[in-house]
């Protein structure tokens, strides 16, 4: 049993969550995602996909149940500890990319290192960021502003930012939602390749059922428990 | 902290127009009241120190402020003149030294001041270059005038015609620059000093021409016993030289010639009181203490300064409100960025540190700019404000 827990990067049991202001609530009976797995979270709008990611990452804390991410009971951590945990353990890729226009590509990739003292910026980190950018085809764009990039390039910068801290888990919330079909597959291929190369677990929210055959595990959020508004 | 400053700096640099506008607004808000107060104080002190260095001033009865402003600061106010005889009368009392001051003309924009040689030691003026006045037709330049005109000893300077379109009027007089004074950082720096007789010649009250005894019939209109009347062909000199200086003369009694004022330097306190007593009931003359006049002007400036301060603080308050509003709106527009920060694991304290760094950088730049503004104004503003006050007085 212990060995199993060690291998599970995500483990959610009997979780109940409701936003403090009321309204939406989510219950999850059981979810496990093993290390190195490429998993997709699906479900209709309002089923709680993003809330599930927030619980796994410790952005939100459940009122009941256990959430264990990368072997850490995040539901037991304080807000400050959850922030530290999040920035050192999890990489995020968002649908809207959320890049900063006032930073160039390299500084956008290194952005997490500017936000937390636990991540120490040094020459090797910078070298890793450059290498990552090169792997993602951004080598010649490091001094560009995000506004000078195409949508696909912007998403690749967001992927590099998620990977630069060498996280154990990548949580991607519809990362290809704003991309055209050709760019979408290209971005996914790069994300998958990078996760595979680093043995990083990926949990990606998607509405695109055409992509599901590329994932090893499908998490149907609707089937996990119940969600209500 | 280094990272917060880095992010703040990058943000401000990216939004440089907004940042510049805020920094400029803040620097005006921070700098203007301090600069205005410092300049005003310095100007008042400067005005008062010159006035206090001038014991008494004799002039035509009328506005004492106009008299002081024209005779001490050489700002042309059209003060009614007294006569050279008034200066002689002061000297004749043996209670004080009378120094004539004749203003009214300019030379290429700088005030032409006719005076006596006593003026220079009285004001503590020293020659920096060349020599002092020795004969009519010569001038000595204040340091600022020499710099402004870019001339020095050996050069010439024309007086400006008082009436440009009056062809029958007084023609410019060519002055020989013989010396430049050491800077005093006061009105003397901006003046062109001549002997009072030279000033009268420049005004057209004296003139020089060819000796009529030897003049041919083509230049003489009428020749009577004891007098010769020349016609208009007789050439007039517009320059006083060693060879023609003797031909310059004044028709009539020179004691009736005008001087703007006379600086009166009593030999002692008692002499000053005696002299003041003599002029108390003078029907057409006034003997004033410039310090009292300037003190009353300073009180007016002080009142104006108070009003100005209220205006500046009101504008400052509006600027501060605008600054806060712009920052709040800016943070609202950056909601996505703040959300990203939070999701990535950034603490509220860190986010506040980044925003705080932006404010500190802007306020710091504003203070720096206000300081530079203050230094520049301290360098040039005092003269500018002094001129503004004296012209507007």
Using brief descriptors, characterize the structure shown.
heterodimer; A: about 230 residues; alpha/beta; Rossmann fold; 5-stranded antiparallel β-sheet; 5-stranded parallel β-sheet; 9 helices; about 35% helix; about 25% strand; globular; B: about 400 residues; alpha+beta; 2 domains; 11-stranded mixed β-sheet; two-stranded antiparallel sheet; 17 strands
Structure report:
The complex is a heterodimer of chains A (229) and B (393). Chain A has nine helices and ten strands. Chain A has a five-stranded antiparallel β-sheet. In chain A, helix 7 (151-163) runs parallel beside helix 8. Chain A has one domain (8-228): P-loop containing nucleotide triphosphate hydrolases (Rossmann fold). In chain A, 37% of the residues lie in helices and 25% in strands. The longest helix of chain B has 45 residues, at 348-392. With 393 residues, chain B is an alpha+beta fold. The model of chain B has no long low-confidence stretch (mean pLDDT 85). The interface between A and B is medium-sized, with 25 and 21 residues.
Low-pLDDT windows of residues of chain A: 1-6
DSSP strand (E) fraction of chain A?
Answer: 15-25%
- How many E-type strands of chain A? 10
Main interface by residue count: A-B, 25 and 21 residues
Order of helices and strands of chain B: HHEHEHEEEHEEHEEEHEEEEEEHEHHH
Separation of the first and last Cα atoms of chain B = 55 Å
Short description:
The complex is a heterodimer of chains A (229) and B (393). Chain A has helices spanning 2-7, 49-57, 79-89, 105-109, 111-115, 123-135, 151-163, 181-198, 221-224; strands at 8-18, 25-34, 38-42, 64-69, 72-73, 90-94, 169-173, 201-205, 217-220, 225-228. Chain A is of the alpha/beta class and 229 residues long.
